[in-house]
């Protein structure tokens, strides 16, 4: 099954971040042609959905490819690109939240170069502070984990920090903690960038953002 939609390039900065910060990438992946191909092997996918599903390539970025990179909780993953080799002209750049002192120089250079050319830039949790450290949020509205807002204001007073679940300022989408990041990405996929039917299918298969009622739960 082939679609005529432009393939999307998505970069994910997840070195030393919390796993929960970047789980939203699976929401994006669930509106992709690759996900429909996988799902179609066990659950018949309506043919018209393939015309709404773009192909996606995810670039997992870290300092080195020679060894696994760390993510909490004690999780190691193999990156696919380094800060030097990752494409800069991304459709979406996603930045997870590391500890505030995790600031590889190569990451700052990459963010400055990628932000200039990328269409959408997202940060989750303390990823907003990481992004601000590169200087690209100066003069913009943004947010980060609510517990870190005071520190963010102290470190980067040139950013207009907001106490909000997420903030959209131009192509920058910044969220509070991990749960806020999931909701932000749900809002992003529902904002008209993807076909309504493919978004509904993806969210229903994930059972995210579809208004589950308490009566659907059972406790023995």
UniProtKB/TrEMBL annotation:
Highest taxon of source: Eukaryota
InterPro entries: Class_I_gatase-like (IPR029062), DJ-1/PfpI (IPR002818), INH-QAR (IPR052158)
Limits of the DJ-1/PfpI domain: 59-190
Pfam families named in the record: DJ-1_PfpI
Protein name, as recorded: DJ-1/PfpI family protein
Biological source species: Collybia nuda
